[in-house]
Input
Amino acid sequence: EVQLVESGGGLVQAGGSLRLSCAASGFAFDDYAIGWFRQAPGKSREGVSGIRSSTGRIYYADSVKGRFTISSDNAKNTVYLQMNSLEPEDTAVYYCAVVDDIATMSTLGFWGQGTQVTVSS
Output
């Protein structure tokens, strides 16, 4: 059974940092990419960042480039999203998912339960 478990969300002031974790199990971690997505109230879900550890290919949305860093620990089957210089606009529920194509951030339908990130101004 594919499982993705996010952690690390919370409340932080603008300019602060958080690190999200996505622990994966139930599939060949090295064979797939993992992506981070977010959904703010009243907005559609958007792809934030993705990584395919086997190739080192990484994707960032323009809105987070230079502020967020994605990384992968294959020994732990875990993907991290380091978020710095957080802005109120980053407030959302953050999800990780198994990604088929980094270029399009298309998913395979396996999602975690989400973790709330709230950035206060």
